[in-house]
Specification:
two-stranded antiparallel sheet, 5 strands
Length: 96
């Protein structure tokens, strides 16, 4: 499972660990997220499915943080890898 792109100069292969790194970096940027862990990544025909478990900071709006987190991860992963996000599933594990 990897994202493969071909251009004039050759092939570019983006592996699952690279996608995980980008998603984690994007999650750390989001206000209200205390911790995040990518627990599942599936790549099929350059389409990416992500499952994350997150811990939120106390007092934040859960829905607003979740939507911002999804948008931030989607933007960063697509920009860096060239793949397309199909779905991002979030599980709120704890509120700290």
């Amino acid at each position: 499972m990897a994202i493969t792109t071909r251009n004039l100069y050759g092939n570019i292969v983006v592996t699952v660990p690279a996608v995980r790194s980008v998603a984690m970096a994007a999650a750390r940027e989001c206000y209200g997220v205390a911790q995040a862990k990518v627990i599942f990544i599936s790549i099929d025909e350059n389409k990416i499915d992500l499952n994350l478990v997150i811990k939120l900071k106390y007092g934040v709006n859960l829905t607003a943080v979740a939507e911002q987190l999804r948008a931030t991860i989607k933007y960063n992963v697509e920009k860096v890898t060239g793949g397309r996000i199909r779905v991002i599933n979030l599980t709120v594990d704890e509120i700290k």
